[in-house]
Amino acid sequence: MKVSTMAEFMAKGEQPEVLFWVGCAGSFDQRAQKITKAFATILDKAGVRYAILGKEEACTGDPARRAGNEFMFQMMAYQNIQILNGYEIKKIVTTCPHCFNTLKNEYPALGGNYDVIHHTSFLQELIEQGKIKFTDSNEWKGKSITYHDSCYLGRANEIYEAPRKVLESLDMELREMKRCKSKGLCCGAGGAQMFKEEEKGDKRINTERADEAIETKADFVASACPFCNTMMTDGIKNRDEEVKTEVLDIAEIIAKAIQ
Amino acid sequence: MALIAELLFGLITVAAFFLFGKNLFAIRRNILIGKEINLSDQPSRRWKNVLLLALGQKKMFRNPLVAVLHIIVYVGFIIINIELLEIIVDGILGTHRAFASYLGSCYNFVINSFEILAALVFIACVIFFSRRNIIRLKRFISKDLNGWPRSDANAILITEIVLMSLFLIMNAADPASDFVISSHIKPLLKSFSEAQLNIIEQTAWWIHILGIYAFMNYLPYSKHLHIILAFPNAYFASLLPKGEMHNMVSIQNEVLYAMQPELAPTDAAAPEKFGARDVMDLSWKNLMDAYSCTECGRCSTACPANSTGKLLSPRKIMMSTRDRLEEVGKNFNKHKQFVEDGKSLLHDYISVEELRACTTCNACVEECPVSISPLDIIIELRRSLIMEESNAPSEWNGMFSNIENNFAPWKFSPDDRDAWTTQS
User: Fold this and answer.
1) Ordered alpha helix ranges (H), B142-180
2) Tell me, what's the ipTM?
3) Under 8 Å between Cβ of B205 and B171
4) Are A193 and B359 in contact (CB under 8 A)?
5) What residues in A contact B408, CB-CB < 8 Å?
6) Would you call A196 and B244 a contact, using CB atoms and an 8 Å cutoff?
7) How far is it, in rounded angstroms, from Cα A72 to Cα B255?
8) Do B392 and A67 lie within an 8 Å CB cutoff?
């Protein structure tokens, strides 16, 4: 697919409406790449003029900071802010709640001030503005789904409604897990846990969460974070041999229903 | 005889308040061992937190039944203590129900309300006691509370139950009284003569007031200090989004000066300690958090690591911080300054394994009814582990070097970052 970079926009002397911050998972992880492509497809179809940084994008530093490595975080933040400010970026949309949180809450203190929006809120806006239209017989209608709150979207930034509103706009039946919204249980990936083996215990955190998702007997599990997606997919795979409940990102669900 | 009693009572009252004040100052001194942090911005939002979180106990209502019981104990505790004023006046002046003549018919109404509250507090405390000891809720039988903390919690509940009983018995034994609850206790005291009743009333009166003074002076040593500290702790609670970590300006500047040496000042400051190794490296708010913790365990129940059997327990993080701070405080008292004792919060009180289990999910922060952030302490200790000790699991070291060399936590070539655009 044709995706323009900021450098290309700059060369033409133009500014996009929004910068799509793809993130490391969205760029490199095979599963998350599908989410990235789904979201890019939606942006194209909704007629949003967007750009990516491409090879100029780098890790926000979130996992390093949360592991305790402030030096590495500050190094990454410095480089990213230099590039973002260089391109005079005003608005950023991202499919990763960790990138979202860092760009939105932690870069301002370092001189990076942008209007940062998570893709679930962005999708909700596009739907409300009528820029996204669903096919009459969208395949999700009447299907049940349970939404897993990402900690960095939910508790960290109090975004609970946008992803749910998006799912409801597809006439899906939303089933809540035992613990949801501000009580939502973590998938186990945050705080740089994604990049190390879990400490010893009785049960893996993603198994615990997968059990709660399976308990709802929903047809699908929705996520809004590439890390949650990996953890939930693995958790369900380990638990649910027969019923293969699919874990899908909100963007993938929308992309399949869009005209 | 009466004069001696009045004098004795006056002395005990002065001593009780003096000791209590002294202990509170000692706690204040300990809290101020922590590093300075400015938390006085946006006063209107802060007062709102005091009203909603401390006074209104908003977080308690995540479980409405428990919230109602807790409100009863709390309101009962405060309101019945108004009666304490009369008790103190009576004790010092040798009067009997000194306020009765001033309040007239209102007096009966006031005491009746106190009695109803006392009965409700009694019931609520019995329920709380059975939740801990008979129903044995998971968060109360956790190993976090082994030893003194469990006795502490039970001692408080038993004291409350006894105090409320004494208040009602005292009223029942007063021959002239006719109050709504204690009148039902009167039949039990029927067989006693008036002189005996007088002794019972006096005894109940004395044990009640001495019990309250004892309770007051027990507070500074107990988890129950939250009845005072919940208020300042709500006021000074972080107003940042929960996902935002405290910025380390020293490192921000160090990176800036490395990238743009022309900006570096000639008198570069001496390098400070990174993160927290001990309580004095934490902020005073972290330390006030430790004294505010009532060890209810809602944080640990919500913690994904704790609930799947990992060593980490956010409640234990707070208890360890308070224990270490008490120790450091004693060290200060003894030597007039802190003398190295070969121990630290990190390693001696909180282990690496505990810190490594945290997913920074903020569930503990969200749950805490008294605005504590165990996460803040965990992060500061993690910073010390990584930046002072280079103590990281090998996978994290790999992640760090990937970020440094490939600008992503995985080993992919940065040139492939936009490869997804050309894949089908």
Assistant:
1) 148-172
2) 0.96
3) no
4) yes
5) 24, 27-28, 58-59
6) no
7) 9
8) yes
User: Is there a contact between B410 and A188 if contact means CB atoms under 8 Å apart?
Assistant: no
CATH of A6-124, one of 3.90.1520, 2.60.40, 3.10.450, 3.40.50: 3.40.50
Nearest by CB to B359, from A33, A55, A190: name it: A190
Q: How confident is the model over A223-252, as pLDDT tens digits?
A: 999 999 999 999 999 886 676 799 999 999
B408 and A36: CB-CB below 8 Å?
A: no
pTM above 0.90, yes or no: yes
pLDDT confidence bin for B92, thresholds 50/70/90: confident
Task: Report the range of poorest mean pLDDT among A9-13, A86-90, B11-15, B177-181.
Answer: B177-181
Are A59 and B407 within 8 A, CB to CB?
A: yes
Q: Which residues, 6+ apart, have CB-to-CB distance to B258 below 8 Å?
A: none
Residue owning tokens 């990049």: A195
User: Could you say which residues from 220 to 259 on chain A have a Cβ atom under 8 Å away from some Cβ of chain B?
Assistant: none
- Phi, psi for B361 (deg, rounded to 5): -80, -10
To the nearest whole angstrom, how far is the Cα of A134 from the nearest Cα of chain B?
A: 23
Total number of residues shown for chain A: 259
Tokens of residue A156, six digits: 């960290």
For chain A positions 177-216, those within 8 Å of chain B (CB to CB) are 182-183, 185-186, 188-205, 208-209
CA distance A189 to chain B (A): 7
Residues A85, A87, A93, A95, CA torsion sign = negative
Residue B269 pLDDT greater than 80, yes or no: no
For residue A38, give the nearest of A6, A8, A1 by alpha carbon.
A1
Phi-psi region of B185 (alpha: psi -120 to 50; beta: other; left: phi over 0): alpha
Tokens of B399: 């992640």
Options 4.10.910, 3.40.30, 3.10.620, 3.40.50; CATH of A135-257: 3.40.50
In angstroms, the separation between the Cα of residue B396 and the nearest Cα of chain A is 6
Cβ within 8 Å of residue B412, ≥6 positions away: A27, A28, B406
The 10 Å Cβ neighbour count of residue B60 is 20
CA distance A30 to B385: 33
- Quick check: B410 and A76 CB within 8 A? no
Chain A residue with minimum CA distance to B419:
A27
Closest approach of chain A CAs to the CA of B320, in angstroms? 20
Contact A193 B359 (CB under 8 A): yes
State the smallest CA–CA distance between residue B392 and chain A in angstroms. 8
On the 0-12 / 13-18 / 19+ scale of CB atoms within 10 A, B45 is exposed
Provide the 10 A C-beta neighbour count for residue A207.
16
CB-based contact B244 A105, cutoff 8 Å: yes
Residues with Cβ < 8 Å from B321, sequence gap 6 or more?
B279, B282, B286, B287, B289, B290, B345, B349, B350, B377
Q: What is the pLDDT of residues A164-185, one digit of tens each?
A: 999 999 999 999 999 999 999 9
Residue B401 makes CB contacts below 8 A (sequence gap 6+) with none
Q: What dihedral angle (degrees, nearest 10) is formed by the CA atoms of B171, B174, B177, B182?
A: 30
Q: For the domain bounded by B271-391, which CATH number is listed?
A: 1.10.1060
Q: Per-domain residue ranges for chain A?
A: 6-124, 135-257
Residue with tokens 């308040």: B17
Percentage above 90 pLDDT, chain A: 94
